[in-house]
Amino acid sequence: MAGAAAQTAPDRIARPWLSPLNQRRLQNFRANRRGYWSLWIFLVLFVLSLFSEWIANDKPVLVSYKGEILFPVLVAYPEEKFGGFYAVTDYRDPVIQDEINAHGWMIWPPVRYSYRTVNNAIPEAAPTKPSWLYDVKTRCNQYPQGAADPNCAVGNWNWLGTDDQARDVLARVIYGFRVSVLFGLILTAGSALIGVTAGALQGYFGGWTDLLFQRFIEIWSAIPVLYLLLIVAAILPPGFFILLGLMLLFSWVALVGVVRAEFLRARNFEYVNAARALGVPNGTIMFRHLLPNAMVATLTFLPFLLSGSISTLTSLDYLGFGLPPGSASLGELLKQAQRNLNAPWLGISGFVVISLMLSLLVFVGEATRDAFDPRKTFR
Amino acid sequence: MSEAPLLSVRDLSVAFAQEGRQSTAVDHISFDIAKGETVALVGESGSGKSVSALSVLKLLPYPAASHPSGKILFQGADLLATDEKALRRVRGNKITMIFQEPMTSLNPLHTIEQQIVEVLALHQGLGDRQARARTLELLNEVGIREPEKRLDAYPHQLSGGQRQRVMIAMALANEPELLIADEPTTALDVTVQAQILELLAELKSRKGMSMLFITHDLGIVRKIADRVCVMTKGKIVETGPTKDIFANPQHTYTRHLLAAEPKGKPPAANAAAKPVMTGQDIKVWFPIKKGFFRRTVDNVKAVDGIDVTVRAGQTLGVVGESGSGKTTLGLALARMISSTGTIRFNGRDINELSFNAMRPLRRELQIVFQDPFGSLSPRMSVSEIIEEGLKIHEPKLSHDERDKRIVDVLGEVGLDPATRNRYPHEFSGGQRQRIAIARAMVLNPRFVMLDEPTSALDMSVQAQVVDLLRSLQAKHDLAYLFISHDLKVIRALANDVIVMRNGRIVETGPSEQIFERPQTDYTKALISAAFRIETAPVGTVSE
């Protein structure tokens, strides 16, 4: 194939990688400054959050010990490596720190807490205020050497305070953002895949297929999801993928309507008839000729589906039917905020993160919708 | 022409703002319409004739559209400088307009009476009873029979011709000085077209109004216009009395337009040629279902027992007005819809074959559709469109061999093969139809069903496509089933003709016989309407 392409290359007119139509859409998307910047901010935040372990962790990023370079984030070294006897090394333990510093060095991530690290040196009863609200003496009063302790450093600050179990809120927010977005993305991708397939089949074949499927969807979407979650939570241990599967069972319905309508409309287009007259098999017709039509509606819908999935997860966590206890979750943070009204940093952090995330996604969605709107013109 | 003209367009230009650029649609045109005169603006699609007409009433999408220069003087006042309020008193009152699509120009949610009364109430302030009486009078005038019964009808209950009559009644309601007719008969059947044109001419002379008539059809111009302005690319290239223009065209474009009618003769009929496609007693019935159990109470007989034979190297023309079932017949023969009866292709009965069993046969049995804008996927390049069939029917071809076939077939249909990586929207209507023909021809078919392949094209392009089809037929010994409502094209291409009406054959025979010595009244009416734009006696054709 490569040789063939090279041979015919001279008389081929170079084709841009995007069709003119898509170029125009991209241009329109860029022209919407708010959506365009939202997308970039969101992408930067998301990619950063994928590397949460290197940003907020209770393990050093890099350790040099007796001439050996170690990667504690990636490899779980047993404590005996550093002269101890536990199976897991607690790098926050002053004894281990002294041992490593005596035979080498270590580099900590900017935040020295993971989402489940309990801060044993909080200045007062949890939940504690953000560290920058205390003076040096109070902040470090729990360390063995007080303000002179080597651990009384900026890296050990709780920038957004701690929650009622003395865990660092900033670390939990970083991990929580990642879990929410990943959950949303996987759920959206799954719903799109199932929803588009189901809608395509119904729209293309129409008739009885369509009729039966539509009735099935009506019955299916009448099942109360929350109730089902309660029942399943009683039988199965709650977890990321069980929750995802359950949500997926119902969320695919959202896309069926639009895709079905597009296929119903487009299946009688003349170029579809022309393809049929050429003897093109049904599957190919659906994929090559009809799906691009439906993609506009689908793509327009996706960002909203994504923000919808995220808020669903958050609300389930808030109600306590979501991810297992201890997981980093924004909904759980909101629940704590509600229980500890005397600790406003919990509520404020949760609110800012969730609203920022959802607003960014809605702005991106709005820009996508406008970019695909053929009637919209930007000047 | 001593007195001042009723409408005088002076040095008019129209420009559209498009993605930051200004594109000129109408370029410094001037023409006059005297009282009681009919002026025709003639041109092919994209020539700017409709835009010129719409600017008279300032109906263009402002501010995207603008007039860089010019004046439109109506009874001495410049309409372009008039404000919106004053303009509303002119629109629908002194100058009225009828449009091409009677289907969409009437509001489907209002009855005929409501729509006409609205015009009367708006401009004349007539009360209910007076308005009703005047509506009846108007409907009578435009030739709607039993107007009392039609007052409460909704647009969908009327035929295309009747709807266009209602539109005319609305336009006449306020006794306008000038009627602008924008392709008023293009969407209608030829027999109905003749009736509407006759009505317009009669009303014009009775009321003494002027008319600006926009059309692409020179036959209509010759019939109805006093003077003609020939437009192309936004300019008026020639203007003069109709007789002079037709007898002695000056400009090359006018001559080109006049010479553009599909000409030439089909190859000699050869009854000995091998039949490629035969259909016997073809019936396509659509059941009408009623009641809870959806019992079939009756059938819509779209095609009702038709026999056809298409021979190699010959063309069978199927003629009929809209709704006659001609396209349904074609689709049934190509097995695109189910039918009863025997369909023999290459001597093999194919009407019982399943979709999958049909697939290998599809290669030799190709279809070219009417609308070259709809039948090519806008998301695929020309090369992808043409190779789609090859990939299915000759999957063993290498990329290079396929590319060679595409280059060959594009050359054959008269397109530059270097353009094969472009997308359909970069081509004109005629070029697109060539692409669609190439898509069918690349598979070396034996039978091609052509469903109105020239109807969406300009006259001069039609002639080229007809020539192309004829040369391809001679070269590959192709059998054509040519479906069209356009008798001129049929005469240029078909050896045998079937005239269809309401799903049945009215008349069939060699094309010479049909066109020279038609036997039935319906065929006679069809031919005189198509070639001479004359109306038939009442009852022969539909309204």
Automatic annotation (TrEMBL), chain A:
The chain crosses the membrane at residues 35-56, 181-205, 217-235, 241-259, 296-323, 343-365. Its main location: membrane. One of its GO terms (cellular component) is plasma membrane. This is Peptide ABC transporter permease. Keywords: Cell inner membrane, Cell membrane, Membrane, Transmembrane, Transmembrane helix, Transport. Residues 177-369 form the ABC transmembrane type-1 domain. GO terms for biological process: microcin transport; transmembrane transport. Pfam families: BPD_transp_1. The keyword Isomerase does not apply. It is a multi-pass membrane protein. The keyword Cell membrane applies. Belongs to the binding-protein-dependent transport system permease family. It is found in: Cell inner membrane; Cell membrane. Signal peptide: none annotated.
UniProtKB/TrEMBL annotation, chain B:
Gene3D superfamilies: P-loop containing nucleotide triphosphate hydrolases. It is found in: Cell inner membrane. PROSITE patterns: ABC_TRANSPORTER_1, ABC_TRANSPORTER_2. Residues 9-258, 288-527 form the ABC transporter domain. The keyword Transport applies. The keyword Nucleotide-binding applies. Signal peptide: none annotated. Its main location: membrane. GO terms for cellular component: plasma membrane. One of its GO terms (molecular function) is ATP binding. GO terms for biological process: peptide transport; transmembrane transport. Coiled coil: none annotated. It holds the Pfam family oligo_HPY. Keywords: ATP-binding, Nucleotide-binding, Transport. InterPro entries: AAA+_ATPase (IPR003593), ABC_transp_ATP-bind (IPR050319), ABC_transporter-like_ATP-bd (IPR003439), ABC_transporter-like_CS (IPR017871), Oligopep_ABC_C (IPR013563), P-loop_NTPase (IPR027417). It is a peripheral membrane protein. PANTHER family: D,D-DIPEPTIDE TRANSPORT ATP-BINDING PROTEIN DDPF-RELATED (PTHR43776:SF7), TRANSPORT ATP-BINDING PROTEIN (PTHR43776). Belongs to the ABC transporter superfamily. This is Microcin ABC transporter ATP-binding protein. It comes from Mesorhizobium wenxiniae. The lineage of its organism: Bacteria, Pseudomonadati, Pseudomonadota, Alphaproteobacteria, Hyphomicrobiales.
